């Protein structure tokens, strides 16, 4: 990477770092259910602390409109305290001038600012707000890969006022994704699933130039099947994206790359208690909906995985929240962990499917980025990376 990182900084002792992280984690009953994003931020925090540096941490959680207690970072502060084994002080009203004193007094410890999106200045990338944040520290560290596609005060604005470098997680994400995208061991196979068709379809279009095969599952595959003119009953289809899907097909044929769709699917009769059943992709009855890829498709996709040199996967293969429709996603996941390929898995919902520790050990890189990972795959950089100091 051509950007400076915390490892390039000398004489850290006694200085204060403002570190933006992506602690946007899933909560259940006020507790962190999946703290992957917190755990992955620890190397940077510990690196700074162990070199005598003080840290002020900032992050968003969800998309609150103003101050909203259900989006408080309290559960994050609790998780951090137990992981770092040092008290983490959560500061509420840090926009207030008096908060600067409070932060200063806590300079010997670790300060976590309350959800940065409680303040409109964050999303407006407001310069006064950015300057206020910069007054809390001597330098800025961006470790929030998952939020680096956002041009906000804590990712971009603050860099106007402080020397700014990448954290160790951001650096790792960039290196791993660049390795896969710029110099992939072939065959390079990409799996895209999930439901966010508009943002994913442009990534597919772009990656056709790089990948040998792009295999689709989830609701996005439905939109591509609809582009062939098949009736898909009540399945989730993004009809506004059907024309774009045709363009992507056309591009795939023109450059001789393979765009692979499910050959069979799991369907359920609309609203009924009917059990899921297998259907060919072109025989979905009017009243039924596709909720997963079928067994023949799983076989084809697993064969692709077995032979792959590099694999990137984003987006579940089906409606995985329902146990009847989790099989496609689980089978692909299991095969990725067995494959010899260099593998990267990322995406908000995709990470929720990694429910065994084993999975983390056997995947080359679990990315903390959702949309950020996709945008990086498309553009090769992100706004929050571009503004950091060059090496
Ligand atoms: P990620 O967060 O990993 O990028 P997305 O947000 O794009 O993934 O998509 C995840 C959502 O897609 C899940 O809620 C899942 O239930 C839904 N989904 C996947 N396949 C289908 C399908 N066939 N029908 C309805 N919903 C689906
Ligand atoms: C994510 O979960 O993808 C990141 O934390 C970014 O969240 P956002 O889409 O609300 O900006
Ligand atoms: Mg999602």
TrEMBL record:
Binding-site list for (2R)-3-phosphoglycerate: 37, 117, 150
Ligand binding (ATP): 200, 321, 347-350
Compartment(s) of residence: Cytoplasm
Broadest EC class assigned to this enzyme: transferase
Classification via Pfam families: PGK (PF00162)
Residue sites binding substrate per the record: 22-24, 37, 60-63, 117, 150
EC numbers: 2.7.2.3
GO MF annotations in UniProt: ADP binding; ATP binding; phosphoglycerate kinase activity
Tagged with keyword Iron-sulfur: no
HAMAP family registered for this protein in UniProt: Phosphoglyc_kinase
Subunit structure: Monomer.
Protein name as it appears in the record: Phosphoglycerate kinase
